[in-house]
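#struct-pred

JT: dropping the chains for the assembly here, can someone run the whole complex?
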Amino acid sequence: MLEIHGLCASVEGTEILRGIDLEVKAGEVHAIMGPNGSGKSTLANVLAGREEYLVDAGTVQYNGIDLLELSADERACEGIFLAFQYPVSIPGISNAYFLRSALNAIRRYRDESEIDAVDFLELVRSRMDLVGMDEKLLHRAVNDGFSGGEKKRNEILQMAVLDPNLAILDETDSGLDIDALRIVAEGVNKLRKKERAIIVVTHYQRLLDYIVPDHVHVLSEGKIVRSGDKSLALELEKEGYSWIQADDARAGNNA
Amino acid sequence: MDPGGRRQGRKQRLGGDVVAETWSKQVQTGSLNFDDQGVDLKRRRGRALEQFEQHGFPGRKHEEWRYTPLSRLAAGPCAPLLERSQEIAFCPDLPVDMLAKVVIVNGEFRADLSDLSRLPSAIRVQSLAQLRHSDPDQLASLLDLYWTQDSHPFYDLSDALLDDGVHIEVVEEGAKIDAPIHILHVLDGQARSGSAHVTGLIQLAAGAQLQLIEEIRSAGEVLGNLRWGIGLDPRSILKRVRAFRPECSSIFHGTRVIQQQDSRFEDLFCSSGAELIRNELHVSHEGTGCHCDLMGAYAGCGKDHLDHHTTIDHKVEDCTSNEIYRGVLSGQARGVFSGMIHVHQDAQRTDAKQSNDTILLSEGAEADTRPRLEIYADDVKCTHGATIGELDEDAIFYLRSRGVSPDEARKILVRAFTSEVFHGLEDRQLSDFIADEIQQSINPDGTNHE
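RK: done, full complex below.
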């Protein structure tokens, strides 16, 4: 589904990604881990099409199309979804209005008819159950005055409604207590399916207790320095990131 | 009006004032004959005409008018009055259940197009022309109540060319009129450009409640000069929504409100695009415990000019006011907000809030904002503020990451920004309608009306 080769990206002249290679197939869950500043969030944002991030080199193929040629909204319409680390609040429009606008934009892109208010409500209600969200939140302004847990749950609700092929969860666990974390993770697990790939970007291993990945990659200084299965995450949890960086430095010296 | 400006008024009038000449000639030669019965009314008309002849439309050096470009009006395309008794082709309905409909076409109250059949006996609605003929003295004293005879170009014109409009009275104390009355102004200058001058008077008895929705629709090059005098007796409540989309016309819309004890005035002004619109609002709190909400949302593009001048006179103690005006400007549109809160010496424990926020969507757009507080009492709570900014790029990206195109994302954010103003509107359909109108009038690339 997704093939990344030699991806280099920078923001405001600072090089952050230094040659990423990654292949993600439908049905898989990949975890991207790494210390702060290693480029995890940059990778997530580059894939989602954030314009402040400049792609300097490399290719990204998504279902056979050149992803880098598409704008952020086109990528979303093609089925890519980014769950934000810091969801943006938009006072003045309701969550329901926001979601319906998004869903209809995607439907128009796919030459499908727009969904009417009644059908939309029915759809959203069924998805809200997945993430255990109170219907009241639907009529509140987007993320405005939401708690950290409510914001993250709202991201997963959007994912459930927009039904993407590739979901990228950027530090979805940050700022969550253990109960909220479990609810959000359960929501994500319910959304796992064989047609869908999920990339989980996280600093901590604890989210991966709930969302069990098929593959784990460790990012350091803009490169994937280790890949493995879920046991790699456990190793990291035990040892911390320092050994990776030390290893890395040694490798660098040897080269 | 500031005295300095008035003193210099004559010097600063706009040159070649075709309008004043045309009208005074017409009145003098009798081709414009209003057939006044009352002495006071006649005197008022004569004096207003004189004042307008003398001062004309004020130029840019006039403090109160420095941001309002009236030169096009003074050049005269709107000098003749719009023709009466035209068939009107457009009369779209708002998506709201109305109790009654008042239709005013080119300044004339049209009984044939209005629908007053469902009005309860607690409320009386008649045309101003009717009142002018049946009781000119009452009309003159009502006019005196709201409009002093200080020189003001548009109020002078309204007096000089006073003809028709509407007179609405809730006569029964405590009468609660649930459904709104729809007031629709149609300004049709398609055949020939011109102007219309409308005076509306509203009086609410003690404890009465009324809702109004006022709309302006126009076509062709027109000047709409509309004014309202509103009297609120103790404990009465008036809720007014103004939904204007006058497009290529020039509109002056002036309101003077006199509030008695514990009365409430809730005003929502929404305009989406006009070549020139000047919204003047003056609220006077004459009795204790009054409250007013002055809310405004406006969107301009192309070369629109949207001008808002509000004054709240807190004259007595324990009154409150809340004013929020929000504008979105694209293209080379210009928005002006000048808001005065005047807390008089006796107005202790006044609580007044005022804010004006503007979003500029293009480099050519411009906002001038002047929030002003004058406080002469010592125990008051007053806040005011103004911001001018751009749309939040993070919010745009958030919407785009969900599949929404950049243009639509901006429109949604404009809707979010302005609709906060009409949050309090109970009628969901009406608030959605207004939000849609404003959203549709924004052209994200900032060039022209769609």
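JT: nice. Chain B touches chain A at residues 392, 394-395, 397-406, 408-409, 412-413, 415-420 (CB under 8 Å). The CA atoms of residues 26 and 32 of chain B lie 5 Å apart.
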